[in-house]
């Protein structure tokens, strides 16, 4: 009868820790902590103290000289909350608001006791409210009343004009999650150019479906965003594909760490600077500067333009998204080709090829 074997002696607590948490896992946890702290800093830094800064506003009056004098008075306000300029008449002022050249307009009526402030809550209720407060204080100091006229109001189902922002954020989340799944399901880096093209093709199909379904939910289903489906569908497809292509590119360059880099760019920096809760003129300088250049900001601005401004001023943000999409796809394919070239060189030299994901597992 065989004697039961006794369990091997414990190697100690430190050995157990090293076995449970590898050095690689520990380094990744440090990266996650840094990402978490960056998230907290970015969101609180952007939103903790919104202040109006150089909000573009047109000033109109029956006499050009009156309009110019009033514009100068607004420009001289402490802290420069407004960036005013005089225009010919009320029609010109209204056109500039609807074309998204300015965020509001003050129409002066010397013959009456009140002036009119034209706003566009479709561009964000917080921005309209900031204009009302700043201009209202100035008009009160001058002994004038102000009547607010919303020339591009948000829809009844679009609380505070935030639906476009949330729609774009949802598209962004889908983009980087889809790309992450496509990449990590078969190794952290694409092994060849064919697989890179296939993943980009799969991402495009996903983007088309996600763009359409998101538009239908926000529009016909929930009644949050008015307007046609086709333009928002196209925008949604571009947003999802651009964010997904960026994520695939980061993964091609940095492996699994690339997912964290994509989250850093799109979520940590992109979301708070997107102009959603607080449009650009209410954000601190850093976030105001980077917002229009990142996918969430470009997507949010374009979505509001399509929904409430007949597509005016949407071309620039759409070009930004297209540039991210092209850059992400190009880097993804380049990394795949470069990696295949290195693998071929290794095989030709008789050395082990570099077709693993860094953990001893072949990248399929």
UniProtKB/TrEMBL annotation:
Domain of life: Bacteria
Membrane topology classification: Multi-pass membrane protein
Localization: Membrane
Family matches, as InterPro entries: T7SS_ABC-Transporter (IPR051328)
Chain ranges passing through the membrane: 21-44, 164-184, 196-218, 230-250, 257-278, 318-338
Keywords per UniProt: Membrane, Transmembrane, Transmembrane helix
Protein name per the record: DUF3533 domain-containing protein
Origin organism lineage: Bacteria, Bacillati, Actinomycetota, Actinomycetes, Kitasatosporales
